[in-house]
Write a structure and sequence with these properties.
single chain; mainly alpha; ABC transporter involved in vitamin B12 uptake, BtuC; 2 domains; two-stranded antiparallel sheet; 14 helices; 2 strands; 73% helix; 2% strand; globular
């Protein structure tokens, strides 16, 4: 493999692998902007991945599977909203419980799906542009999920930053008492933010089993739900920063796999070193969290707003 092919494959894989990370992070931005923390993204993605693949296998339509995955995420988000928004429960406890519940339920219900192949979301190429050297195949030959995610990201940004809904959600999350005085339904905004977040997490999970790594295996997410939460911190609630972080993490995961296939590297002779490489994305997630916290403290000392 020459350098051009290596780079093209890396960019293309980063775009596709970044799709579930970005969708999950975008959903969590909606939830946290309204004032609801959800740590159950991992379990929601797992249940959605299993549900989406099962429905696609049963109906022959990956689009129905994608929609079913989104609905599975919304269903779990409704449970979280009932416990946190309406009953005043601890969001950390509720989110962790939801994550374990979703992951366990997916493992039990999906046991007969392991090893089976089913329909996948289609791939398209822009005629002419996809043949451009170097970046042509990476940017203009993609799974349909890539442009769909771009559109969802733009819609999410408009809804969060350029709409009355986004303004009310931010008020509900940052100053709920003041929002109530102004007539904003804090409960309604938090419910909406949590359900939207669940829908995006469901789409993220379904995208894994229907496009990124087609099929179903237990723990198909591999901790990506937790990385998505780290991306929310990195993004400072800005969708474009979440998209950038998702692409970088997606490209990094592909890079670590490609490095193990180069004969001249020690990784080729000792595959066990690959386990150490697999730790890098999660170590970087921890580093991002620590770095953002230190940056937040510095901004606070300088008198800047926390989300600046």
């Amino acid at each position: 493999m020459n350098a051009a092919d290596f780079f093209t494959g890396l960019v293309a894989a980063g775009l596709l692998a970044g799709v579930p990370l970005f969708l999950a992070a975008l959903g969590e931005i909606f939830a946290e902007r309204s004032g609801v923390l959800n740590l159950g993204i991992e379990g929601m993605m797992l249940l959605a991945a299993m549900t989406g693949f099962h429905v696609a296998l049963a109906t022959g339509s990956p689009w129905l599977g994608l929609g079913a995955g989104g609905l599975a995420g919304i269903a779990l988000a409704a449970i979280h909203a009932a416990g946190v928004v309406y009953c005043g429960g601890d969001p950390v406890v509720s989110g962790l419980a939801l994550g374990f519940f979703g992951g366990g339920l997916a493992a039990v219900l999906g046991i007969d799906l392991v090893g089976r192949s089913g329909p996948v979301l289609p791939e398209y190429a822009v005629l002419g542009l996809s043949r451009l050297p170097l970046l042509g195949p990476a940017l203009f030959r993609w799974n349909i999920l890539v442009p769909l995610t771009v559109l969802l990201g733009l819609a999410g940004w408009l809804l969060l930053e350029r709409s009355r809904f986004g303004l009310r959600s931010r008020a509900a999350g940052e100053a709920p008492e003041a929002a109530r005085v102004l007539g904003v339904s804090v409960t309604g905004q938090r419910l909406a933010g949590t359900l939207i977040g669940g829908g995006f997490a469901g789409l993220a999970g379904a995208s894994l089993s229907l496009a990124v790594t087609p099929g179903w295996v237990d723990n198909i997410t591999g901790g990506q739900g937790w990385i998505a939460i780290g991306l929310v911190v990195f993004s400072r609630f800005k969708p474009w920063r979440a998209a950038l972080g998702a692409f970088l993490f997606g490209a990094l995961r592909r890079l670590l796999l490609d490095l193990q296939g180069i004969p001249s590297l020690p990784l080729f002779k000792n595959p066990n070193l690959g386990y150490f490489l697999a730790m890098i994305p999660y170590l970087l997630t921890i580093a991002v969290l620590v770095g953002e916290e230190l940056s937040r403290r510095k901004r606070r000392l300088d008198g800047a707003p926390p989300c600046a």
